[in-house]
Amino acid sequence: MKFFDANSSLTLSGNLQLNGPSGGTTSSIVLGTGILNVNGDIKFNNATSTVTNTNRINQITVSTGTITIGGNLIYNSVN
Q1: Sheet holding 26-31, edge to edge
Q2: CA triplet 33, 34, 35: central angle to 5 degrees?
Q3: 71 burial class (0-12, 13-18, 19+ CB within 10 angstroms)?
Q4: What is the pLDDT of residues 43-68, one digit of tens each?
Q5: CA 58 to CA 19: how far, in whole Å?
Q6: Distance CA 70, CA 41 (A)
Q7: Residues 6 or more apart in contact with residue 51 via CB below 8 angstroms
Q8: pLDDT tens digits, residue range 23-39?
Q9: Rounded (5°) CA angle 9-20-41
Q10: Strands 9-12 and 57-62
Q11: Rounded to a whole number, what is the largest CA-CA distance in the chain?
Q12: What values do phi and psi take at 38, rounded to 5?
């Protein structure tokens, strides 16, 4: 998902869950100049507690945009 326009925005009333990608891929949200509002938690999830692949990347990249998290930012959450 990419937000490159200053008028690009997304507001979520609940949690945002980013599931770990399969294979050697990257799953990302790119926040250029847009706005992302999450009223709940943002969770970076692994597929299972035993996933140890270093080439499966889950990320949010922020340039000049704005991200607001109403809850917690949680890394390595297990489904």
Answers
A1: 2-3, 26-31, 57-62
A2: 135
A3: middle
A4: 988 655 555 666 777 888 899 999 99
A5: 8
A6: 7
A7: 20
A8: 778 888 888 888 999 99
A9: 50
A10: unpaired
A11: 40
A12: -120, 115
